Amino acid sequence: MSLLHIAVLAPFIVALGVMLLRKPLSRIHAGWAVLPAPVILFAYFLGRIPTIQGGEPQHVRAAWIPSLGIDITLYLDGLSLIFALLISGIGSLVVLYSIFYMDRTKEAVQRFYVYLLLFMGAMLGVVLSDNLLVLYGFWELTSISSFLLIAFWHHRDRSRYGALKSMLITVFGGLAMLAGFIVLYVMTGTFNIREIVASIGTITGEPLFLPAMILILLGAFTKSAQFPFHIWLPDAMEAPTPVSAYLHSATMVKAGIYLVARFSPVFAGHSWWFWIITITGLTTLMYASLRAIKQTDLKALLAFSTVSQLGLIMSLLGLGSAAAYFGAGPDSVIYAKATTAAIFHLMNHAIFKGALFMVVGIVDHETGTRDLRKLGGLLNLMPITFTVALIGAFSMAGLPPFNGFLSKEMFFTAVLQASQMNFWDAETWGILIPVVAWTASVFTFLYSMILVFKTFTGKYQPEKLEKKPHEAPIGMLIPPVVLASLAIIFGLFPNLLSYSLIEPAMTAIHPALLEPGDTFHVKIEMWHGWTTEIFMTIGIIVIGSLLYKLHGSVGVLNQALTKNFTLNRLYDRGLRALEGGGKSITSTYMTGSVRHYVIYIFAFFILALGGGLLLIGDIHFGGNGSYAPISFYEAVAIIALVIPVLVLPFVRTRLMAIILTGAAGYMVTLFFVLFRAPDLALTQMIVETVSVMLFLLCFYHLPKLKREKVPMGLKWRNLLISAGVGVVVTLIALAASTGRSFDSIADFFIKESYPSAGGKNIVNVILVDFRGFDTLLEIMVLGIASLGIYALIRVDLGEQLLGQRDPYQEVYLPSRNDVILRTVSKVVIFIVVAFSWYLFSAGHNEPGGGFIGGLMTAAALVLLSMAFGMDVTRNVIPVQFRKVTAVGLLIALLTGIGSLVLGVPFLSHTFGHRELPLLGDTELATAVLFDLGVYLAVVGVTMTIINSIGRDQ
Questions:
Q1: Average pLDDT over residues 25-36
Q2: How far, CA to CA in Å, does 34 sit from each of 86, 91, 99?
Q3: 694-739 residue pLDDT tens
Q4: What distance in Å separates the CA atoms of residue 733 and residue 352, rounded to the nearest whole number?
Q5: I need a labelling partner for 498 at 20 to 30 A (CA). Which of 15, 50, 81, 217 fits?
Q6: Bond preceding residue 38 cis, omega within 30 of 0
Q7: CA 111 → CA 36, 138, 468, 860, distances in Å?
């Protein structure tokens, strides 16, 4: 595994460490333990600048699912390097800032840093992934982790509302993006982004080309809060300020920008790509800047300013795509300047907006409010904070000598050149582009001035503040001061970024514009003379200053754009309509009756599978001699199985129902023995034993069984459904055994079980090796189910809900068990546990394995609980079985990750022979480690359920 893979995994590993070292970290602020991770990552990516600048992108691959073309392929070029530096660099400053912002005695800081690290790792995965499906996985992980971060203060209604809104909108876009990725795969036959770019000449004329483009842009627009999907971002400001400074200025909202830039080599040069991105970006820029000037909450103002700036960057990427129309040549360079401006402003925005979010956090932290109507006159009380705010706001407004001025001038150059385009119908509408850009820039200047001057100048109103304001502690000031300093440095010396970062990024976005061996040459200067752009800036300052003077007195500058109709209201009504419609539809079949649910399931089963058999039509059920003869023992077993099943509907007590159910299950075990399937027989027997014990524990809490008066029509319905299920299952079994249209995969498992996996027990080899991924997901599902049962059982339902108990039930109370059961159990438990260990250790080559061994160990522990009571079990084995489940899942997962570290596909196993003391020549297989995880997970899951249901109280 390469260092690049480790860099992506590092935040996840540190997050795991924070969870495991929870108690030791409680003595200090967890942020100090987390801080080295982003700092080291930032240093690593800084060290990659010379290599990338030299035109040598880094491409590394770790096999995952190679048969499906899905590998964890990472690609570090100029574009991904910029984002990696922002993610790790801004992340370092945010972690430092949060140490002083988050009080460890009042806040769950460890949980906060786990979420933050999950997001950091997910973002690194997004910008470095070269495989579409891997990128999508990390993409959705950013949505999940951002949901957790926004809802960090989950006791607040607005936090939960904002988190849900952000996740719904971004996940919707993510699913659309996934559909676009699949369409691209259909056209190109690959999930690899580099290979898709290389095949661009063969797919531009495909009918699916435009749908793929639109679907991918939906993902980008929702993530980067473009109009009309921007509504999630202002509500996401309910998150703690460090989250806003990180996610909503420098990282998450830039993921959509990254997606557009990454796919520009595929779609740029197409008129639809140009117009969709440009119009969406300019619309977002104008609308959000208008909304920003009307806000009274500082974070809301910054939220809309972020949306506005994202629209600016997005429009620049759209304008820059026109360069691909000309291909390599001097004409393309004119329009490629827009892309240069986009990259430069991307970095500038992260710098000044991160500083401004931290300033707002300081103001809120030290005054107790973000309301502009209560603030003012803080300049003398918080001079350092004011200085940082002034630099950040002036940079955002595009004033010299700060970095924002340079990228804003480059933005004006791009829109002026776009107005002179004579292709893609730009002759008609192109003139509007600089008009919209300039108008929106006036409002940008206005909200920048509102932000800094209405907060720090004017009348001081201490009576409206919750705290007596004072300058923030040095730890909170260092991060914004660093960012403000960078705004000045990159304003005065912009070419520090031009040669090292912007030129390689341009090569990544527009590779088709370069001749072989050629490179982009980017030079940014503060002064170009008295150009049109300078006069546009002077006009912005004059008009913007006038509007600032009128802002408090002119209603149109303060009032909402619309009173009755808003996009938020449309979202709320739409969500309520969906919930109401879903509730009304669900209420028609979710009646609370288990019988009804079983009827729905079985009726669908009959219609779907039975109908499928009829539609296929060419299935043959064989004739005489097609099936094996039924032996005498099999006939006896069939009769013994049918009898309890037929008697079961007529019993009058739950105890007899449990006994008959168990008898039927044990007869199935006998069938497995007759068919020479020892693994299945062992599994069925142990599952049946544990199930019967579980039924008995539940049986104690159930009301007395009563005979119901069921109308004859319902009885006939139940009979038809029961018979239908039986007939369909029988027909499927007969058809499957005689109507195969392909060779059985069993021959492959028989042939490859030992050579490929080192095991002679084919069933166990399938579970832990050939289908190990299935097993991993299955034990995860079991773990989640056990936690769900544990949570449900902990709810006190009240004695009145239990009803009248069956008089026979009291026999099964643990406190009433007799001496014989206890005496026998003392011996039997040790025998069963020893046998379970044998099954586990021998399972790779003999009948057994982790699943069977875990079930048998659980059966022994259940017997201990039944004989001596739950309290004795807890005293003898003082462990939380939920943690046993977690350890098992972790071992199984780490086994799979270990194979990735060694450069082979996930969950690949190896084996070999070693000379061990006393044991001699012994076969060792890594699959046993995975099986150990399965063993512990099964024990933990079973005992969590048993202890929850059968606890003494």
A1: 91
A2: 17, 11, 10
A3: 777 777 666 777 777 778 888 888 889 989 999 988 888 877 776 6
A4: 67
A5: 217
A6: no
A7: 18, 20, 30, 37
Question: Helix, strand or coil for residue 923?
Answer: strand
Residue 652 CA, chain-centre distance (Å), reads: 50
Cβ neighbours of residue 728 closer than 8 Å, sequence gap 6 or more: 605, 606, 609, 610, 613
Region for residue 625 given its phi and psi (left: phi exceeds 0; alpha: psi -120 to 50; beta: otherwise): left
Q: Are 155 and 108 in contact (CB under 8 A)?
A: no
Asked if residue 41 lies in contact with residue 112, where contact means CB atoms within 8 angstroms, the answer is: no
Q: What is d(CA 601, CA 593) in angstroms, rounded to the nearest whole number?
A: 13
DSSP H/E element including 60: strand 58-65
How high is the mean pLDDT of the chain?
88
What pTM, to 2 d.p., does this model score? 0.81
- How far is it, in rounded angstroms, from Cα 433 to Cα 316? 11
Strands 911-916 and 58-65: unpaired
pLDDT of 811 > 50? The answer is no
Cα–Cα distance measured from residue 396 to residue 304, given in angstroms and rounded to the nearest whole number: 13
**What pLDDT shows up at residue 86?**
96
Strand 911-916 to 70-76 pairing:
unpaired
Cα gap 254→247, rounded to integer Å: 9
- Residue 285 and residue 312 in contact, taking contact as beta carbons nearer than 8 Å: yes
pLDDT band at 494 (very low <50, low <70, confident <90, very high): very high
Peptide bond preceding 383 in cis form (omega within 30 of 0): no
Six token digits for residue 593: 């009756």
Q: Mark residue 606 as left, alpha or beta (left: phi above 0; alpha: psi -120 to 50; beta: remaining).
A: alpha
Q: Write down how long the chain is.
A: 953
Give the DSSP H/E element, type plus range, for residue 59: strand 58-65
Query: Quick one: which of 394, 376, 647 has its CA closest to 540?
Result: 394
843-873, pLDDT tens digit by residue? Answer: 888 888 888 899 889 888 888 887 887 778 8
For residue 192, what are the β-bridge partners? 131
pLDDT tens-digit series, residues 368-405: 899 999 999 999 999 999 999 999 999 999 999 999 99
Largest distance between two CA atoms of the chain: 104
The letter for the amino acid at 136 is Y
Of 18, 5, 13, the C-alpha closest to 44 is: 5
Average pLDDT of the residues in 933-947? 88
Token pair for 110: 């460890």
Residue 505 neighbours by CB under 8 Å, 6+ apart = 77, 78, 79, 81, 82, 261, 343
Query: For residue 319, which of 396, 434, 400 has the smallest C-alpha distance?
Result: 434
CA angle 692, 698, 699 (to 5 degrees): 80
Q: Please state which of the ranges 78-82, 276-280, 330-334, 927-931 shows the lowest mean pLDDT.
A: 330-334
Contact (CB, 8 A) for 89 and 245? no
- The mean pLDDT of 588-608, rounded to a whole number, is 87
CA distance 681 to 1: 42
Dump pLDDT digits (tens) for 213-268: 999 999 999 999 999 999 999 999 999 999 999 987 778 999 999 999 999 999 99
Sign of CA dihedral 371, 373, 379, 380: negative
